[in-house]
Design brief:
The structure is a homodimer. Chain A is α+β, with helices and mostly antiparallel strands. Chain A has three helices and nine strands. The first copy, chain A, has two domains: about 70 residues, Orthogonal Bundle (Arc Repressor Mutant, subunit A); about 120 residues, Umud Fragment, subunit A (Ribbon), CATH 2.10.109. In chain A, strands 2-1-3-4-9-5-6-7-8 form a nine-stranded mixed β-sheet, with no helix packed on it. The longest helix of chain A has 13 residues. The first copy, chain A, starts with a helix and ends with a strand. The first copy, chain A, binds a DNA duplex through helix 3.
DNA sequence: TTGATTTGTTCTCCAGTTGTTCTCTATTCT
DNA sequence: AGAATAGAGAACAACTGGAGAACAAATCAA
């Protein structure tokens, strides 16, 4: 909805003076601020701003003119924390959002983890890199997955699932593959992207 | 639709002065700005610009002259093309925009290239990876840079600048470093981020 | 509870502004 | 000459913004 000049002006004034009121202003107060002498005139503008979704509707109450909270359109996917072989995912307290290229997103639910350790170094995933993970509970053989081992350790490894066992391969010549029973391993997600920041 | 000279001129002025108005200008205001004395004359030009899709139609409302908002608030930085050692940057025809984490941006002008070849494999930069580059014409020793060699080849290498020579180190045990005269090398940008898409 | 006051709403009326539509003229280019 | 481009100016309807009165519901005071 497009605003007229006066509507825009009133909205701006309303925003600018929001701190100066300790209560939401009434029509009369706002009229005084705007130099209007008629509440009826102001009412038309207020209604237009409500229509535009910029002010809260009154709903029959007399509690002053309130701005609607601006709906921030935060973009990105959540950065959940660190993943290190041998420990649960170390969750970060406040989930920051991280913008990632659309190419890394799959349409399904994705999140970002920071990798700790060198277990995937031969795949070009270094200590401190960020990985984009698609949330899933199954994977194809050869996928790099976030796997939960025995319900307590989370790890990033290449997976090979056989009927009677599951093998997790690190990508590091100096580390050995680990073999588990299928019920010991729970796939939590599949690697879809890698991010690294220099400096 | 082609614009006449005056139409183009008016459109440019309109764009340039958009910040100077706090409201969309009325015909009268714009007439004053253009030195016209007749709203009717301006009206013809405005109509032509509306026809051309550059201005919003009035729809019987009196809200001033508005540019059509390019609704695409496409976020991201431009993906410019491929970089391979030994060739100029292979530019892509239409510059796509790629969203990247804020952490990879420096506040200065940045762009994305796709890496071809394995010359940086030991740094975890693989064939097909995307690199985020900050546009710069100088670098610190040890930085990974996009360097233009002899004004014709572009390459991604680690740089070491000495008073009498410049050395470009690949990060690949099977490749040798190259030594150049300072005037042969032109730094085009510095690596600030890495992106890799799986699948 | 009751009455007075405040507050938001609705209505009519009015003036100035704004966009539109004319006609007429001047200039430039083909 | 004719077409295209540009501008001046007048006249007009519609839109915008405002005043003020009257009203009902919410709120406050006693």
């Amino acid at each position: 909805m497009k605003l007229t000049r006066r509507q825009q002006e009133i909205y701006d004034i309303l925003r600018d003076n929001l701190d100066h009121f300790d209560q939401p202003p009434t029509y009369d107060e706002l009229c005084r601020l705007l130099g209007l002498s008629s509440r009826g005139s102001l009412h038309k503008h207020i209604q237009a701003l409500i229509q535009a979704g910029l002010l809260e509707p009154m709903e029959g109450l007399q509690r002053g003119i309130r701005l609607v909270e601006s709906v921030e359109v935060e973009e990105g996917i959540p950065f959940l924390g660190r993943i290190a072989a041998g420990r649960p995912i170390e969750a970060i307290s406040q989930a920051a959002l991280m913008k990632v290229p659309d190419e890394m997103l799959t349409g399904k639910s994705c999140y970002v983890l920071q990798v700790t350790g060198d277990s995937m170094i031969d795949e070009g995933i270094f200590d401190g890199d960020y990985v984009v993970i698609e949330q899933r509970d199954s994977a194809d053989n050869g996928d790099i997955v976030v796997a939960l081992v025995n319900n307590e350790e989370a790890t990033l490894k290449k997976i090979k699932q056989q009927s009677d066992r599951v093998i997790l391969y690190p990508a590091n010549a100096s580390m050995a593959a680990m073999v588990y029973k299928p019920e010991e391993i729970q796939v939590q997600g599949v690697l879809t992207g890698l991010l690294r920041c220099y400096r």
